[in-house]
Amino acid sequence: MSRTKWVVIGVSSVIAIAHVGALGHLMKRQPLEKGVAQVPTINIPQGPYTSYTITADKDGYKIEYKANDPKVMESQRSLNSDKTRKGFLGGGTETRQEYRRDQYTMDGTRNIGGGATDAEGKSVKDVECLIAAAGVRSQGAMAGTAISTGVLVPAVMNIPYVGWLAAGWATLLGKQVGESVGSQIGSVFNDC
Fold first, then answer.
1. How far apart are the first and last CA of the chain?
2. CA–CA separation, 145 and 140 (whole Å)
3. For residue 60, which of 76, 35, 37 has the smallest C-alpha distance?
4. 68: helix, strand or coil
5. What is the pLDDT of residue 128?
6. Taking 60 as the threshold, does the pLDDT of residue 95 lie above it?
7. Tens digit of pLDDT for each residue in 148-170?
8. Are 98 and 78 in contact (CB under 8 A)?
9. Measured between alpha carbons, how far is 125 from 173 in angstroms, rounded to an integer?
10. Helix/strand/coil for 56
11. Helix (H) or strand (E) holding 57
């Protein structure tokens, strides 16, 4: 054999033995330290409202992490009032008891009802508010158009050269104002 073949065979043998050694080192099982398996180090971010639980067994480990725990906080208020009024026309008593319990999130948003959410994360109250807002916006737009057509359009129609254009603008303005006013009134009445 020629000298080049021996060099190639020698270098190939060294590389093959190194690969087998590296694979053996990587596949070697971690030794138990005093009967406890080595657990990987995991740096879990911690804050004032975080909580986590780590469960490990022979099959692996499981981490349950909550970044904002407690998610809902509560406040309770109560008022008891017992007044006895004696006046010009006689006496009377007044007894009043009021109890309020609110749930709110960490940023101060008050929970206004139900924990039921749909697939998109919207609560039942959000969906009701959207449906009510759509209805009152359309009603407000019709009312605004009718009012502007009856009041503004005759006034701007007599403007020379651009009266017809100003009448269209007045109708659109009435529609937009009616939508916004209807939306505001609907949110007040529907508690949204």
1. 91
2. 8
3. 37
4. coil
5. 77
6. yes
7. 888 888 888 888 888 888 888 88
8. yes
9. 31
10. strand
11. strand 51-57
Burial of 178 (0-12, 13-18, 19+ CB in 10 A): buried
Euclidean distance between CA atoms 170 and 145, whole angstroms = 9
Q: Would the CA dihedral through 77, 82, 87, 91 be positive or negative? A: positive
Residue 164, amino acid: W
Do the strands 60-66 and 90-104 form a parallel or antiparallel pair, or are they unpaired?
unpaired
- DSSP for 76-144, written as a single string: EEEEEEEEEEEETTEEEEEEEEEEEEEEE-TT-PBP-S---B-TTS-BHHHHHHHHHHHHHHHHHHHHH
Could you tell me the two tokens for 188?
A: 């007040």
* CA–CA dist 123, 119 (Å, integer): 10
User: What Å distances lie between residue 138 and 109, 157, 181, CA to CA?
Assistant: 29, 26, 11
The C-alpha atoms of residue 49 and residue 75 are separated, in whole angstroms, by 18
Q: 138 — phi, psi (to 5°)? A: -70, -40
Find the mean pLDDT for residues 110-139: 69
* pTM of the model as a whole: 0.35
Task: Kindly report, residue by residue over 25-83, the tens digit of the pLDDT.
Answer: 777 665 555 666 565 677 888 887 788 888 888 888 888 888 766 666 777 888 777 77
Taken as a whole, the chain contains a residue count of 192
- Residue 57 token pair: 């067994």
